[in-house]
Amino acid sequence: EAGVAQSPRYKIIEKRQSVAFWCNPISGHATLYWYQQILGQGPKLLIQFQNNGVVDDSQLPKDRFSAERLKGVDSTLKIQPAKLEDSAVYLCASSFRPGLAGQETQYFGPGTRLLVL
Amino acid sequence: SQQGEEDPQALSIQEGENATMNCSYKTSINNLQWYRQNSGRGLVHLILIRSNEREKHSGRLRVTLDTSKKSSSLLITASRAADTASYFCATGGGSYIPTFGRGTSLIVHP
């Protein structure tokens, strides 16, 4: 079974530029999550999708971050414009059973490492 | 603030020794999960323990949960160099979004 795919693996941009990350979850997984992991910290949930609807985005900085999951499969996370403090690893995860994140096993992709200069 | 907090922040042991790391949390939970993260990679789910369970085993892993003390522990027995990684606990349940702690960095020397 293929795992969660993410691209790109690495991205370097200058502040105020835009960047987009892509995630393809495990086939059949209805729930998709985006996390931000700053160096030395644990992952912080940014947004959770159930199929193509948003379940929780309370920690997503909506003035600069946006995410979508068209057709309930792939998802993109965009930052526009980027700030220095956005430097982090962006992790995508998916899970099979619907419900609140944390109540079922999440499968993580390898992450996208973003550096904002 | 983060719900789960791991302790210690760093742990260094010799191959063959046991490694114990702890997780404390603040509010009621439905379950607690432990994940492992190798350097530069995504997280891998290790084990989930529900609030009505006290202990769970999976291979060389043993997890305990004490809801009265709001704490959990992860024991890795007979550690191997390949166990070198960061370990995170994540709490979930109710209306709370899942939150991860800062993790315990484990180094197992061959």
Outline the fold blueprint.
The complex is a heterodimer of chains A (117) and B (110).
Chain A: E1 5-7, E2 10-13, E3 19-24, E4 31-37, E5 44-50, E6 53-56, E7 65-68, E8 75-79, E9 88-95, E10 107-108, E11 112-116
Parallel strand pairs in A: 2-11
Antiparallel strand pairs in A: 1-3, 3-8, 4-5, 4-9, 5-6, 7-8, 9-10, 9-11
Chain B: E1 5-7, E2 10-14, E3 19-24, E4 31-37, E5 43-50, E6 55-58, E7 61-66, E8 71-76, E9 85-93, E10 96-100, E11 104-109
- How many DSSP E strands of chain B? 11
As an assembly, this protein is: heterodimer
What integer value in Å does the Rg of chain B equal?
13 Å
Helix fraction of chain A by DSSP (H/I, runs of at least 4):
under 10%
Secondary-structure-derived class of chain A: mainly beta
Largest sheet of chain B: 6 strands, mixed
Folded structure, characterized:
The complex is a heterodimer of chains A (117) and B (110). With 117 residues, chain A is mostly beta strands. Helices cover 0% and strands 47% of the residues of chain A. Chain A is built from no helices and 11 strands. The radius of gyration of chain A is 13 Å and the shape is globular. In chain A, 37% of the residues are buried. The model of chain A has no long low-confidence stretch (mean pLDDT 90). By secondary structure, chain B is an all-beta fold. In chain B, the strands form 2 sheets. In chain B, strands 2, 4, 5, 9, 10 and 11 form a 6-stranded mixed beta sheet that branches. Chain B has a 5-stranded antiparallel beta sheet with strand order 1-3-8-7-6, with no helix packed on it. In chain B, 36% of the residues are buried. The model of chain B has no long low-confidence stretch (mean pLDDT 89).
Overview in brief:
With 117 residues, chain A is mostly beta strands. Chain A is 0% helix and 47% strand. Chain A is globular and about 40 Å long.
